[in-house]
Sequence to fold (138 residues):
Amino acid sequence: QSQLLEKETAVVYLLENDKREDLARMHRIFSLVDNGLQPIAQTFRQYVTDRGNKIVDERVEQAKTMASKSEALGDPSFIQTLLDLHDRFKGIVLECFAQDSLFQKSLKEAFEVFINRDIGKYSFAALMSSFCDRILKK
Fold:
């Protein structure tokens, strides 16, 4: 099991290349082994956390160049990128991991890590409320 998880064709490769059928197959196989899904769920959580942290890091760099409040709060791309990321991985949990509670928990915990990070002058809550306000005004 550990050899399969560490190979080049392991979970990270399958996630990066969106190999959903292979992920579903891996889930079915390892669900037959006692505690077989735990290492896969940990790798999934770490992968999602890394992807989210990368997006937040990019936003922190952008925030340093933004001068005005309206410029910082008016850009919906950051929130939309995070929503797209969540949709992608939520779909993987639904399709590949059969809504397994272990993977749902991993996804939730991964998002908590980077959503609660400091992202500069404005909090994530302020950016989210500005994003929602923009949608509701349309």
